[in-house]
Amino acid sequence: MATKVHKVFVSYHHANDQRYRNRFENILTESDISVIKSVQMGDINPGISTETIRQKIRDDYLSDSAVTVVLVGAETWKRKHVDWEISLSLRDTQKNPRSGLLGIILPTHPDYGKNTSNSYIPNNPYIIPPRLHDNIQCKFAALYDWNENPALIQKWIHDAFNRRKTVNPDNSRTSFANNRSGFQWQP
Question: pTM of this prediction?
Protein backbone atom coordinates (compact mmCIF):
# COMPACT_ATOMS: atom_id res chain seq x y z
CA MET A 1 0.00 0.00 0.00
CA ALA A 2 1.40 3.43 -0.95
CA THR A 3 1.96 5.91 1.82
CA LYS A 4 0.30 9.31 1.80
CA VAL A 5 2.77 12.14 1.22
CA HIS A 6 1.88 15.29 3.14
CA LYS A 7 3.32 18.75 2.64
CA VAL A 8 4.87 19.76 5.95
CA PHE A 9 5.77 23.23 7.16
CA VAL A 10 8.47 23.27 9.86
CA SER A 11 8.53 26.02 12.49
CA TYR A 12 11.61 26.32 14.67
CA HIS A 13 14.10 28.66 16.38
CA HIS A 14 16.47 29.49 13.52
CA ALA A 15 19.51 30.51 15.56
CA ASN A 16 19.39 27.57 17.99
CA ASP A 17 17.86 24.65 16.11
CA GLN A 18 18.84 24.88 12.44
CA ARG A 19 20.79 21.60 12.56
CA TYR A 20 17.70 19.72 13.80
CA ARG A 21 15.58 21.32 11.09
CA ASN A 22 18.14 20.20 8.49
CA ARG A 23 18.26 16.67 9.92
CA PHE A 24 14.45 16.52 10.02
CA GLU A 25 14.29 17.52 6.36
CA ASN A 26 16.83 14.81 5.47
CA ILE A 27 14.82 12.16 7.33
CA LEU A 28 11.61 13.14 5.54
CA THR A 29 13.03 13.55 2.05
CA GLU A 30 15.21 10.40 2.18
CA SER A 31 12.12 8.43 3.16
CA ASP A 32 9.78 10.07 0.62
CA ILE A 33 7.21 10.62 3.36
CA SER A 34 6.75 14.37 3.12
CA VAL A 35 7.53 17.50 1.23
CA ILE A 36 9.03 20.03 3.62
CA LYS A 37 8.86 23.82 3.69
CA SER A 38 9.90 26.50 6.16
CA VAL A 39 10.88 30.13 6.24
CA GLN A 40 14.67 30.34 6.18
CA MET A 41 16.72 33.20 7.58
CA GLY A 42 16.75 36.02 5.04
CA ASP A 43 13.65 34.82 3.17
CA ILE A 44 11.50 37.68 4.44
CA ASN A 45 12.67 41.26 4.82
CA PRO A 46 12.39 42.11 8.55
CA GLY A 47 11.87 45.77 7.64
CA ILE A 48 8.36 45.27 6.27
CA SER A 49 5.24 45.60 8.42
CA THR A 50 4.15 42.84 10.79
CA GLU A 51 0.94 42.30 8.85
CA THR A 52 2.86 41.96 5.56
CA ILE A 53 5.23 39.43 7.16
CA ARG A 54 2.26 37.40 8.43
CA GLN A 55 0.59 37.51 5.03
CA LYS A 56 3.80 36.37 3.29
CA ILE A 57 4.18 33.48 5.75
CA ARG A 58 0.59 32.37 5.17
CA ASP A 59 0.40 32.90 1.41
CA ASP A 60 3.95 31.97 0.37
CA TYR A 61 4.90 29.23 2.85
CA LEU A 62 1.81 27.77 4.53
CA SER A 63 -0.75 27.92 1.73
CA ASP A 64 -0.24 24.39 0.45
CA SER A 65 1.01 22.69 3.60
CA ALA A 66 -1.17 20.12 5.34
CA VAL A 67 0.69 19.84 8.66
CA THR A 68 2.85 22.22 10.67
CA VAL A 69 5.59 20.61 12.73
CA VAL A 70 7.08 22.72 15.53
CA LEU A 71 10.60 21.67 16.49
CA VAL A 72 10.71 22.61 20.17
CA GLY A 73 14.14 23.49 21.54
CA ALA A 74 14.94 25.17 24.83
CA GLU A 75 14.03 28.68 23.64
CA THR A 76 11.52 28.07 20.86
CA TRP A 77 8.68 29.32 23.07
CA LYS A 78 10.23 32.82 23.01
CA ARG A 79 10.06 33.38 19.26
CA LYS A 80 7.33 35.62 17.82
CA HIS A 81 7.68 34.09 14.35
CA VAL A 82 7.03 30.60 15.75
CA ASP A 83 3.89 31.95 17.44
CA TRP A 84 2.78 33.59 14.19
CA GLU A 85 3.46 30.46 12.13
CA ILE A 86 1.41 28.31 14.51
CA SER A 87 -1.42 30.86 14.56
CA LEU A 88 -1.50 31.18 10.78
CA SER A 89 -1.46 27.38 10.42
CA LEU A 90 -4.62 27.17 12.53
CA ARG A 91 -6.63 29.62 10.45
CA ASP A 92 -9.11 28.03 8.09
CA THR A 93 -9.86 30.22 5.08
CA GLN A 94 -11.07 29.52 1.57
CA LYS A 95 -7.64 30.34 0.12
CA ASN A 96 -5.59 28.67 2.88
CA PRO A 97 -7.16 25.71 4.69
CA ARG A 98 -6.15 24.83 8.25
CA SER A 99 -3.07 22.67 8.80
CA GLY A 100 -2.66 19.89 11.32
CA LEU A 101 -0.24 20.61 14.16
CA LEU A 102 2.33 18.67 16.14
CA GLY A 103 5.37 19.46 18.24
CA ILE A 104 8.62 17.55 18.57
CA ILE A 105 10.73 18.07 21.69
CA LEU A 106 14.37 18.35 20.65
CA PRO A 107 17.30 16.91 22.63
CA THR A 108 18.21 20.51 23.57
CA HIS A 109 14.94 20.95 25.50
CA PRO A 110 14.88 20.37 29.29
CA ASP A 111 11.92 17.95 28.97
CA TYR A 112 13.50 15.80 26.27
CA GLY A 113 13.54 12.13 27.24
CA LYS A 114 10.84 12.51 29.89
CA ASN A 115 8.16 11.15 27.57
CA THR A 116 6.41 8.17 29.11
CA SER A 117 3.63 7.79 26.53
CA ASN A 118 3.06 8.24 22.80
CA SER A 119 2.05 11.87 23.27
CA TYR A 120 2.49 13.95 26.36
CA ILE A 121 2.37 17.29 28.12
CA PRO A 122 5.88 18.30 29.21
CA ASN A 123 6.80 18.54 32.88
CA ASN A 124 6.90 22.32 32.54
CA PRO A 125 4.34 23.31 29.88
CA TYR A 126 5.46 26.94 30.13
CA ILE A 127 8.65 26.25 28.16
CA ILE A 128 6.94 25.17 24.95
CA PRO A 129 5.28 27.70 22.62
CA PRO A 130 2.10 28.91 24.35
CA ARG A 131 -0.15 28.44 21.30
CA LEU A 132 1.18 24.89 20.85
CA HIS A 133 0.43 24.25 24.53
CA ASP A 134 -3.16 25.49 24.07
CA ASN A 135 -3.66 23.07 21.19
CA ILE A 136 -2.19 20.13 23.04
CA GLN A 137 -4.65 20.90 25.84
CA CYS A 138 -7.64 20.83 23.45
CA LYS A 139 -6.21 17.73 21.70
CA PHE A 140 -5.83 19.42 18.31
CA ALA A 141 -2.05 18.94 18.54
CA ALA A 142 0.24 16.29 19.98
CA LEU A 143 3.77 16.49 21.35
CA TYR A 144 6.49 13.87 20.95
CA ASP A 145 10.17 13.40 21.72
CA TRP A 146 12.67 13.73 18.86
CA ASN A 147 12.95 10.48 16.95
CA GLU A 148 14.64 9.62 13.67
CA ASN A 149 12.41 6.67 12.76
CA PRO A 150 10.74 7.69 9.45
CA ALA A 151 7.76 5.38 9.92
CA LEU A 152 7.01 6.83 13.35
CA ILE A 153 7.37 10.41 12.11
CA GLN A 154 5.07 9.59 9.19
CA LYS A 155 2.47 8.30 11.65
CA TRP A 156 2.70 11.49 13.73
CA ILE A 157 2.27 13.62 10.61
CA HIS A 158 -0.64 11.56 9.31
CA ASP A 159 -2.37 11.65 12.72
CA ALA A 160 -2.02 15.47 12.79
CA PHE A 161 -3.37 15.62 9.24
CA ASN A 162 -6.45 13.64 10.30
CA ARG A 163 -7.04 15.67 13.49
CA ARG A 164 -7.24 18.96 11.56
CA LYS A 165 -10.73 18.03 10.33
CA THR A 166 -12.04 16.36 13.50
CA VAL A 167 -10.85 18.60 16.36
CA ASN A 168 -11.28 22.35 16.67
CA PRO A 169 -8.04 24.22 17.40
CA ASP A 170 -7.57 26.96 19.99
CA ASN A 171 -6.27 30.08 18.30
CA SER A 172 -7.67 32.52 20.86
CA ARG A 173 -4.35 33.69 22.32
CA THR A 174 -3.15 37.18 21.38
CA SER A 175 -0.24 37.01 18.93
CA PHE A 176 3.22 37.90 20.17
CA ALA A 177 4.18 41.48 19.35
CA ASN A 178 7.86 40.81 20.13
CA ASN A 179 10.16 37.96 21.02
CA ARG A 180 9.93 36.95 24.67
CA SER A 181 12.63 36.60 27.31
CA GLY A 182 12.90 34.91 30.70
CA PHE A 183 12.83 31.34 31.89
CA GLN A 184 9.20 30.55 30.97
CA TRP A 185 5.99 32.20 29.81
CA GLN A 186 3.28 33.12 32.29
CA PRO A 187 -0.17 31.51 32.11
Answer: 0.89
